[in-house]
Amino acid sequence: MTPADWLIWTVRASVRPRHCRAGWLVLLLAVFPVLATAAPYQWRNVAIGGGGFVTGLVFHPAEPDLLYARTDVGGAYRWDQASGRWSALTDWLGRDDANLTGIESLAVDPRDPQRVYLAAGTYTHPRVGNGAILRSSDRGATFARTDLPFKLGGNELSRGNGERLAVDPHQGGILLLGSRSNGLWRSDDHGAHWQEVTTFPAIARSAQASAPAWNGTQQIGIVFVQFDARSGRAGSPTPVIYAGVSTTTGPAILRSTDGGRAWQPLPGQPTGLRPTRMAQGSDGRLYIAYADLPGPDRMGNGALWRFDIKQARWQDISPVPQSSDTQGDGFGWGAVAVEAGNPDVVMASTFNRFGPHDDIFRSTDGGRSWTPVIAGARFDHGNAPWTAHASPHWMADVQIDPFDPRRVLFVTGYGLWASRDVRAADHGQPVQWWFQNDGLEETVPLDLVSPGQGAHLLSALGDIDGFRHDDLTVSPLQYAGPRLTNSESIDAAAQSPSHVVRSGTVRHRLHDEVRAAWSNDGGRTWQAFVSEPPDGEGAGRIRLGSDGGRVLWHTLRGSHWYTDDHGRHWQAVRGLPNTAVVVADTRSPAHWYGYDAASGALLRSDDGGASFVADRVRLAPAPVLTAELRADPQQGGLVYVGAGPQGLLRWRAGDLQRVAGVDAVHSLGVGKGAPGRDVASVFVAGTVEGVHGLFRSDDGGARWLRIDDAAHQFGQIQRVTGDPRLHGRVYFATGGRGIVYGDPQ
């Protein structure tokens, strides 16, 4: 028993008021904390493999096999050569710091393999906080944090450019960070404190260093900083430094020869395009990838240039012309790399050349001639079969192993590929690639369901539809049948779990594809609904009655509809506001429940969801609340309401009990009850007795056990889902770390 571990004991009020107005029957339960020993959980990822944009890779130049990866929304990773897996470095970030799970840039200390730095911050909009520098002296096992006075944009335009963060190779206490809107910043104490380099040219802060985005204009600023190690000596600051500003109208490549105090444009540089990445060979020559836009959303022009420092001469060495784009909309150059031991070996990637396809080109003569390495290559999809349906794109970074130049890795919008025989291309042979993503999980799950039989988990995912997981440790193929771009909602019938439905979106919906599908074999095969309801835009929330016979679909920007024949006919649900969420009773097909946070109304249906009436109990209105309802799988008629800052409530018809001690609920799940219990286990991601975390109760909310810990926070936990067959098992969605599941140890 330790003082840090708490169980919360709630004692139900035994006396009800004799008279109570309808809507006011909310019983508050008294709370008495007691000390207890918390049972630890083992946390693992459900195996999918990749699934999101890996935005950068960094090899350590002085230690073999020390490799880091950064992602746009899923944190940072270190490669573990012994296990052949990636290790997540940022799972300790909690909900309040979820914005730091987007990594803008990553840097290592070239002379100290223990030190690694992350420039963390996902967005720059007003609703999020500032970015931070996360600094580690033990390869990412632990981090110290320095908050920055500005925001970072790890999931914004130019997120594949880089690296913005750099460590002086001769004096490791010196770091430079190129920002989006606030110029160049410097630290002289290993990232603990920062100050602006006020002498850096103002163009980095100006509108000239911005780009058009889907939501207006985004400031891009400085996209890379690079020290010229050849110019310095150990123990002294490196004098020559380069920086790239994302601009097409002014000097984009700047150089300092005095350690960063003064900066001048590199003479004779090309104009009209903006730099994305730069690599320097051991002979000093610079290779710079350019594009008209920073990516990844769009690029329509670009070039690859080489700068010979000794001769002060620029040369366009683009491997293929713009005319090679068969779609005719142009393309940019996303990445460039130079072999550490041979400055004539250069590799560069096209970006957004979808016709015929993006490619990586390789030169062994400093850029005079080039060979493609993707065209004709062989890709091993064995450890992630779903990748056979994806094409390499968004190749924003290519890295050559400094200790084994046969080994090359490149990133994509859905993970990263690796090869150990890239030199095969030099002899006209196909290059072998394998999907090096074991342990790196970056999907964005949008909904989860654990059926009562068959596969333990069915998922709805952003970008890559979803999966049936018969084995949580093996990456399967995506759903067979009609495909969705985003599967956004999924449900299985409680008493007939082979019946499953899902809804979502279809990108480029050219043939009026129906954006929902059903399965009667537990998600093995799927068929599209016959039609969609008369209003809405697909997606939304879709739910099944307990016997699998009736489907309720609340379409995006539409109303609630029901069908008994897989969409051949649709009927409007009566009495259910468009702002309400619903859930079916787990025992009776006739009973459904709804909660309208906008009005606070709790609603019931006794005719299979065809119509709803307000219960006599209700909550206070909460118009901006995203609420969750979960029906107890072991007791018919019992529903748990996750009501955000109003906490957790147990609801039966006419009777609403607020579970005291639960201060806020961000996500709510139910699963198999403890042995001997007649109620389900309840899982809450939220705040209990002032403590933020993930909690489990085995007695309907009377006592709570915290099941996460300081090392396992996973950013923003969503879509909490219990397993109806395994007591204690819980699944949840993250904002970019894939699907996580936990079991009591």
UniProtKB/TrEMBL annotation:
CDD domains: Sialidase_non-viral (cd15482). The keyword Nucleotidyltransferase does not apply. The keyword Endoplasmic reticulum does not apply. SUPFAM superfamilies: Oligoxyloglucan reducing end-specific cellobiohydrolase. Gene3D superfamilies: YVTN repeat-like/Quinoprotein amine dehydrogenase (2.130.10.10). Residues 256-277 are annotated as: Disordered. Keywords: Carbohydrate metabolism, Glycosidase, Hydrolase, Polysaccharide degradation, Signal. InterPro entries: WD40/YVTN_repeat-like_dom_sf, Xyloglucanase_GH74. Belongs to the glycosyl hydrolase 74 family. This is Cellulase.
